[in-house]
Amino acid sequence: MKAPKIIFTDIDGTIREASGHIPKSTVRAIHELQQAGYLVVVSTGRPECEIPDRVYEIGFDGYISACGAQVRFHDEIVLDQVIPEDLFRGIVSYMEDHEIVGYFQCPKKNFVLASQKELYLSYDERSHALLPEGSERLYPEPAFAATAEDVIHPQKMAFWGNKTSVEQFRAENDPRFEILPLAIPSQEKYTGEIMVEGHSKGNAILTLLSHLGISQEEAVAVGDGSNDITMFEICGYSIALGNGSEIAKKAADLVTENIDDDGFYHAFHEDLKLI
């Protein structure tokens, strides 16, 4: 492994437990890495409005949000992408026709169409009940938009349904969308996340590396899920948490300890010995 200059880390399941707790050892590792001269950047599927205050309080050097739709380095916006209007209108129409709830994720606040409010509340309650005890809700409460035109700056989407599978959803919509299943127990078949093809954590990392003049070989990625694999493919070295998905662990160069066993700290202190 080439000596790294920058580290990209996912949030959920990587530095933050399902309960919302961030281990003290993780915070210490991040600060020690920064003190040693490494840049540490968040790379999350969450839009900016969903990044918890506690994460911002840590003081990262940058934030890749909404699965790569936006890149912020310190106070500079390096990349800002939205779902093209024609794609957005088409998929909203499809969701309405198939009684699928669309949850539209945007930088300032998230939206659900007012016409789908009752469906959303029903699916949200059911999904939360299926998560491990003590888990936060998958998504914060949205604003309810009267029409699709009232959804401001959509970067990505999630959807819930009970009849249309992820595979059918993918087959019947514009191929420019990338659709991934959401890991909700017993509902994986009918829930998913939607990004525009090419909007990914990996491509966002390439944009930031080019902006900073840092090579891919000088970057390390840390994650736990399927949407972290594009990070793993781009960065010179990749680390999966022990609690991560099998697909993420298989794709990583190193599998470290679980998040609740000080996995992040262990990766950089014991495994890589950077701090």
Describe the SSE topology.
Elements: E1 6-9, H1 24-35, E2 39-43, H2 53-58, E3 62-65, E4 70-73, E5 76-80, H3 85-97, E6 101-105, E7 111-113, H4 117-130, E8 143-145, E9 156-160, H5 166-171, E10 177-181, E11 191-196, H6 201-212, E12 219-223, H7 229-234, E13 237-240, H8 246-251, E14 254-255, H9 263-271
Parallel strand pairs: 1-2, 1-12, 2-3, 7-8, 12-13, 13-14
Antiparallel strand pairs: 3-4, 4-5, 6-9, 9-11, 10-11
Helix pairs in contact: 1-9
Describe this structure in words.
It is a single chain. With 275 residues, the protein is α/β, with parallel strands linked by helices. The chain folds into 2 domains: 6-81 and 199-271, HAD superfamily/HAD-like (Rossmann fold, 3-Layer(aba) Sandwich), CATH 3.40.50.1000; 85-196, Hypothetical Protein, Haloacid Dehalogenase-like Hydrolase, Chain: A, domain 2 (2-Layer Sandwich), CATH 3.30.1240.10. The protein has helices at residues 24-35, 53-58, 85-97, 117-130, 166-171, 201-212, 229-234, 246-251, 263-271, and strands spanning 6-9, 39-43, 62-65, 70-73, 76-80, 101-105, 111-113, 143-145, 156-160, 177-181, 191-196, 219-223, 237-240, 254-255. α1 (24-35) crosses α9. The longest helix has 14 residues, at 117-130. It is globular. The model has no long low-confidence stretch (mean pLDDT 91).
Estimated share of beta-strand residues: 15-25%
Structure classification: alpha/beta
- pLDDT averaged residue by residue: 91
Low-confidence stretches: none
- Can you count the beta strands? 14
Binned, the helix content reads 25-40%
Number of domains: 2
